[in-house]
């Protein structure tokens, strides 16, 4: 029985590791600049990749300074090669400081999620 | 009943006491941006469409005199179905138990449960629910089995809660969450009366066995790397789907206990505590836990629990995985 259980659990664990998506609620998987990251110099765009494919029409991303002042940015657009990824072109170079990104998305199974994260720009 | 059968039954009862976390009570819940995994010692506080197959338990019991007691391996299952977004039913069983010292085996009873979410607040990642569970007597192995099931039905009202700390202002605290469960196990046959013939006198005597009501209570403290990765700072890919936790569950007899008799633990609180780890995959979750007995009545040394839990709501979102009536849970959130 030990052997059978070992095989079952090992196989299940291997399958789960092989899964590239996530459960059917779109949470932020990774971003560029990264969640909580510090980057040197201003990025030209934000890239947000979620755990689930998105409905682009219902996706929005805003960026603001730590003080709450909005930063000019384009509309969030879906990546043609990856429906779980959004791109946001920045309207101006970011000065050194802390920035807050707010996202609202709807996954293809219609679940809505939203959240925020910060990143820091250094000279 | 032979000595061997008696020992097997005693072993089964002892194993049942320490393997309470293996029971069919597994589901995952999402409230706002918080994922409450299907934990091993207690149920999570929501309703969902899921299949836990298998749940596994291992524990070595100890006899009252300190000698090694039965060693049990259990494979169980549970299927949970939503009726509406806030109402769910489930059917399951602690399943089959292989026992050594003495050797025995048998099926546990079937359990059914109806659960209702009274209130949830996505913004504050808070949820509270209640359930009524029935373990149906004599639906497992018969009384002639080497490991018979409980012949009596037990009805159990339950209360659950869950709270994520994503709404607090401290980044280090936001990945934390707690869940809890309190059960009140009420046997439908408080007293069993058995006629036992005395082989010497030839007279019949009555043997009375009291089935106590039991309070079962447990909690989990979770740290979600899933949450930390999405909202605070990114973690390496290997860890971003993990939720480590520390959890425990305890059972205390509260009434109809009978006199304390040397040689048994009928008045003793039993329980297990221990670290656990949950991996949240695309369509299923895997959980493992080291269960540490809190006293000799609870076990001889560290045991183990594990589960593979399939998310039917994600595997079949348009058919079996959605509520029978009404829309699925909104699961929307407005954090920060």
Report the sheet-strand fraction of chain A.
35-45%
Count of strand segments of chain B? 17
Order of SSEs of chain A, N→C? HEEEEEEEE
Helicity of chain B, in percent? under 10%
Number of helices of chain A: 1
Following the backbone from N to C, one meets helices and strands of chain B in this order, namely HEEEEEEEEEEEEEHEEEEH
Which value, in Å, is the CA radius of gyration of chain B? 21 Å
Quaternary structure state of the chains depicted: heterodimer
Q: Tell the overall outline of chain A.
A: elongated
Structural class of chain A: mainly beta
* Count of DSSP H/I helices of chain B: 3
In the predicted model, the low-confidence regions of chain A spanning at least 5 consecutive residues are 1-22
Whole-number mean pLDDT of chain A: 82
Estimate the helix proportion of chain A, in percent. 10-25%
Walk across the major sheet of chain A and give the strand order.
Answer: 1-3-6-5
User: What integer is the average pLDDT of chain B?
Assistant: 87
Kindly, what is the distance between the CA atoms of the first and last residues of chain A, rounded to a whole number of angstroms? 60 Å
Tell the overall outline of chain B: globular
Largest sheet of chain B, in brief, is: 12 strands, antiparallel, barrel
The portion of residues forming beta strands of chain B comes to over 45%
Largest sheet of chain A: 4 strands, antiparallel
